[in-house]
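Following up on my earlier message about uracil. Here are the inputs again, as you asked, copied directly from the submission form:
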Amino acid sequence: MRMVDLIEKKRDGKELTTEEIQFIIKGYTDGSIPDYQMSALTMAVYFQGMTERERADLTLAMAESGDQIDLSKIEGIKVDKHSTGGVGDTTTLVLGPLVASVGVPVAKMSGRGLGHTGGTIDKLESVPGFHAEIDNQEFIDLVNKNKIAVIAQSGNLTPADKKLYALRDVTATVDSIPLIASSIMSKKIAAGADCIVLDVKTGAGAFMKTLEDSRELARAMVRIGNNVGRKTMAVISDMSQPLGLAIGNALEVKEAIDTLKGEGPEDLTELCLTLGSHIVLLAKKANSLTEARQMLEKAIEDCSALESLKRFLSSQGGDASVVDDPSKLPQAKYTFELEAKEDGFVSEIVADEVGTAAMLLGAGRTTKESSIDLAVGLVLRKKIGDHVKKGESLVTIHSNFENINEIKEKLYVNIKITPEIMNPPKLIHEVITE
Ligand code: URA
Ligand code: CA
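Thanks, got it. Here's what our run produced:
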């Protein structure tokens, strides 16, 4: 087989065979296929697309390019949740303990973040003592015992995807549905779950800005998952403004605690109950979505979700007393209020720009090597549709710098107020199960 022939084949709009796709991914991972040939192929895919069968083969080939996690020693049906990004997305921190508390095993492999705020592991590390550097055996034992554990991502998960994503990034081939869908799904499949629930974000702060594009990506991923034998479904949720109120690592941990107490922001609570119900149903712990939702609501009411969080944190070295006393989480030196300059209704909160403001405070990494400040970030006081009076706070800024004029300016530009009444955006756009 010669790579040049396969590039030509795809360039001319023909379908690659399973063997050809395996040859490409194996060759690219071991270095026998050079970057210049792989870039030509990805550009051909960008224009010609891939059939459903090709997408499934590409996903499996990438999933098999490195370590694959074996979760078979964990009892029950393992359901993994994946979100396609967004700003201030606290769902993982809430969902893990919540579904674990009704008996769904949560075996979460997670990473550190690049961008607005840290990843799930960074956020959890704002709990004093918490660590996710545990070995596989301990991970499996903890999930069997507590129904939940989080382990730091293995170094050699889907190396083909790592290399290919970096190449696509510099060859203008990121924006291709078959390539995005197989990239995301390869990682989920290598991470070992039986079922996958996707939270596909849509709107200004999302990777996919329009509902049409989000729907196409969601469908592509759901089909790949189901075609390779992992039951998969997707919820398309709004990211035209940040989810919940908190953006920042320790602030989001506190927000997750509040939500598990039943005192969280409405949108975050609703999205967690929606995603959680699907997870519980896929894990066969309930017979209907309605029953699943009732179980989760009860777990919040009777504090079993909160108990599950405490057990999870303390089993991984964390000080679980932060749950009852969140003031033990890292605190910023200063808090400032962003005061509204006029009366009106909040009409826009540009999610990625607000996320960037949190990053400028130190909540996120600008490069892989930079360190993050777990204490800092933003807490929104108003969301789209809320009425605001001149002088009222729009945002509380938690900072370790005294001079934050630049950040305030950025927030003023990206939180818009209008005299007209505004409706809040719809939170859940669609559920895709086919
Ligand atoms: N996220 C991924 O993991 N892969 C892509 O290709 C795009 C977004
Ligand atoms: Ca949030």
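One observation from looking it over: The chain has 16 helices and 13 strands. Hope that helps, and feel free to reply on this thread.
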